[in-house]
Amino acid sequence: MSEQSMVVQRNKNAVAWLTINRPEAYNALSLECMQALIYHLKDIAKDRSVRAVVLSGSGKGFCAGHDLKEMTAEPSEALYQQTFSTCVELMQTIQQIPQPVIAKVHGIATAAGCQLVASCDLAYAADNTRFATPGVNIGLFCSTPMVALTRAVHRKQAMEMLLTGQMIMADKAQSIGLINAALAPEQLEEHVTEIAEQIAAKSSYTLKVGKEAFYRQADMEQAEAYAYCSQVMAENMLSEDAQEGIDAFLNKRQPCWKGR
């Protein structure tokens, strides 16, 4: 399977739909698969016609985590370092591209697959989806998934998942903040499409500014965050799209975004 075919992309209504295409392996994140995702995401980042991204998995589940068969076929520290550094690049790319990334989750999302969900800006799941960070069960603590998980959910909830390795259902994942909503499987596609297209109707410039500021301020002290975000808003106010949006609001018309 070629690098590109491991990830399938289709664009519709300013939304890029990315599907991990390894159904025979529960969409496990092999090196090539992660590299393909990074390639697509970085390419999307340069495409001004795309204003939102939906990430999903083919077959029976969203993503089962790293490809353990690949990692144990010819074990070496160099392979492990490359695997985990590529995983880190993938998770950071999701949060660094200007477009919001929405996870559409079904079946299972475990280990690095759960990390993938936690790294996306928004996440919606079928209500029969199961989530876990089960590395502890096989002697491999989910340390890199822990980074994303502890930034998405309460620490004690994250620790319970990491220490027990137990599966949790979508309703629990929603209650702890790992996903935005759990929906009936037949409603998932329609709901995610509605959210993605609602976001894609906004100014691409404003989305870029807001997403970047969200992640930068999250690790700041409150006073520093307010100072930074005040400057961001002042600069945002001077943009063409903010001027257009305010004028459209005051004059009760639809805005015409320029993306700047």
From TrEMBL:
Keyword Transit peptide: yes
TM annotation in the entry: none
Endpoints of the signal sequence: none
Keywords, sorted A to Z: Fatty acid metabolism, Lipid metabolism, Lyase, Transit peptide
Function, as annotated: May play a role in fatty acid biosynthesis and insulin sensitivity.
GO biological process: fatty acid metabolic process
Family matches, as NCBIfam families: PRK08139.1
Protein family per UniProt: Belongs to the enoyl-CoA hydratase/isomerase family.
Domain of life: Bacteria
Gene Ontology molecular functions: hydro-lyase activity
Coiled coil: none
Name of the protein this chain belongs to: Enoyl-CoA hydratase domain-containing protein 3, mitochondrial
